[in-house]
Amino acid sequence: MERLLTIAPSLSTLPGDDVRQILWRFTDRYDIQMVAQSARTVARTSVAKLVAEGGRNTHEWTQGKANLLRAYDEAGITAAFMEPGEGGYLEGPKNLLLALVAFELAWVDAGAATGCLAGNLALAPIRERGTDEQRMRYLALAVPPAPGEPRTVYRGAFALTEPIPFVGVDTGVLGGSVKVASWEPGEEPMLQVSKRGRFITNMGFANFVTAAVDSADPRFKGSCMIILEKGDPGIWDRGTPTRKMVHQLSSTSDPVLDLRVPASRIVGGYSVVDGVIVPTFSHGEVIEAVFRRTRVTVGVMTAAKLLSAVEPVIRYQRGRFRGGDAAKPNSPRFEQGLQQKEDTLQRLIDVWAGGEAAASMGFSAARLFDTLEPLEKEKDAFLKEQGKTQGREKMKALDGARARALELLALGAHAEDTALGERRGTLEKDPLVRFVLLDSLANVVCPAVKLWNTGFGANLMREAVSLMGGYGITEDCPGFLGHKWMDAQLEATYEGPEAVQRRQLSVTMTNEVFLAQLRGFGRDLRQIASTRPGTGACTVATALEMWRWTLSYLQRSKDASGRKLYQGARQGVTFALADALCWLLAARALVLDVVELEEKGKDNAALAETLPGLAAFYTDLCHVLAARAAGEVGRICAELVFGYSQHPAWDEESCRGCFHSDELDALESFIPGIATGARTSPDVIEENAEHPAKAGPCVRLDDKMPFVRLRLKLDGCLTGARLAKDRAAEALTKVVIPEALDYPR
Ligand SMILES: Cc1cc2nc3c(=O)[nH]c(=O)nc-3n(C[C@H](O)[C@H](O)[C@H](O)COP(=O)(O)OP(=O)(O)OC[C@H]3O[C@@H](n4cnc5c(N)ncnc54)[C@H](O)[C@@H]3O)c2cc1C
What we know:
Blueprint: H1 17-23, H2 30-52, H3 63-74, H4 95-108, H5 110-129, H6 132-141, E1 156-159, E2 177-182, E3 190-196, E4 200-201, E5 208-215, E6 223-229, E7 234-237, E8 252-253, E9 256-262, E10 270-273, E11 276-279, H7 283-308, H8 310-319, H9 332-336, H10 342-385, H11 391-411, H12 418-429, H13 431-466, H14 481-493, H15 498-508, H16 512-531, H17 537-556, H18 571-601, H19 611-642, E12 655-656, E13 659-660, H20 661-668, H21 670-676, H22 682-687, H23 705-717, H24 721-734
Parallel strand pairs: 1-5, 2-5
Antiparallel strand pairs: 2-3, 3-9, 4-8, 5-6, 7-9, 10-11, 12-13
Flavin-adenine dinucleotide binds at residues 118, 158-161, 168-170, 199-201, 242, 244, 247, 252, 490, 493-497, 499, 571.
């Protein structure tokens, strides 16, 4: 009988803008597309040329680097941060827009991206917490002047970090000080502000600084952020440039500032209570509002590097043996080069999958903040309307909203009923409920993006570099991959190193509103897995169940010496679990984007021919990442669940390994249960968690039994993951790439 041959759809070319716009949901945003295009042009011309000419070989602020600032101004990137009323040209939230600008610039050089966006970081305290007057003045002055307009553009620096032993990870130990210099009756107080900075970006040219300082005067209460200008009386010493090994296209130095300024420069203003100046916001409140958004952009930079590595590595691999006598044209060695070797392909697939997941998570976080921003304003207006203006009243109202948010999430499954449906409708319209739901997610995804994209991203960048052999660690490496590897480490460090993100996650990820939503994520992933098993969504869902079970177990368990496991000081537990969660969120983000590509790609005529191949390839990438995520989650959770009991001595009589033999035998009976899914859901497991403890020298599984079931189930969920990797790797040998990179080197 003749066999029917079907040719599997394959990736024909590298994904272009039409694919990215669907994945990251800005197909209909022409305004954003235009700005991203402008950023790309600057990146692949001015920035790439400067890097190729050795612009990174000095940490001094040079004319070549300064010219980039003008290029950003002319391309409209600088003014993209401002609202039309402030001199900008785009209205509304700009998180996705700025993330795309960062992505385009970091595709070539992240120092250029940082130099461009650090000005926004200096303005962000004013944008987020400044008074109306401060916003109007500084945001407008930071808009580049129109041609012929006699005005110097304001460029800012954000100064939080101080020389050792002061501010670093711990932002509370401020050495910078503020005192009352003079205060005439009926007049505005004048303040003496003293701030030494360490590693301050943009300081080589900034003409204003937003600085964090603490009171050194009984007439000034607490800390604040304050705006300092170059013309203020006193010392404005930019300091010596930092001898950086990374991001050399940005300017960094350790300034010394000692200036006299009016109290109206306190970000957010102040009031006078019993003769004491009381800032409206402490420096902590301001930086919290700022980093919440800007850290997402940093995470997107590392994603850009990973994705930018794909094309140069493929080109290098294919051309590796061409030119000599050893490989004749049309021979496999000539045509495929290093791509004949499975490992080179599979490692590149790991880099690609990691880059896609990082971008998916980063851009979805940026979009989330775009949605949250107006909601935050709606919430504030609603509370004001209700007369709830005091801190305690607001907190109480939000507590109530949290309870209603949980009610709404619980209603999800029963919404068919009319009465419940009506209640659901009411809750969905409640502005406080909508805010609380999104806010609890934002509090997790922002540190997750910063932590996973930059931390794991830096490790993956090393893999990309290694695929270029010795070339990878030279300045001549196509795509500047060696630079990008080192640069990724700075992205993991500034705006709070990984410890800061893990610390934040260890608190926010236990919020019950977040956890209830996470449960819903699991259900949604199972739904996706029922029609798209190739995405690995099932694997992610099971790993998610395992993570939830582990958190709940750790929260109620103690170690061998009776110490509570899940507590702030126990970073060995909380930080590890935070890392595991990031893997899950990254994998989920990629699954959702791939579903979007498959669904929306059909509406795009330009993709008609290539979509089947693209969708198949992305589905395989997704599966590869899902399997890796599941592996990480399984490893971390197993270490935490088992690692805090004493290891018994080996006893041949009663043990096999560390488990009691009757428990091991009992495990076999779980296997049929594993297949059904329902029996292993954490909730069912928790209910049935009681297993009588038996005496003996072995580790008793006891209440860990449900974990073992989940672990077995998770292993089974890896079915097909390596086939997906094989297929994706094979696609790399066929995909058509351009003749040369579209920027120098
Ligand atoms: C090129 C560059 C540009 C920069 N730009 C700016 C800028 O524009 N403005 C600005 O204000 N700052 C800037 N920074 C500073 C940067 O944000 C800090 O370096 C960073 O926040 C870490 O502070 P630190 O170096 O003092 O590290 P430390 O506080 O000394 O921490 C070192 C390490 O110790 C561990 N650690 C510390 N505390 C804890 C903890 N509580 N729990 C667990 N582990 C912990 C972590 O592993 C951490 O990475 C820049 C830095 C560089 C290198």
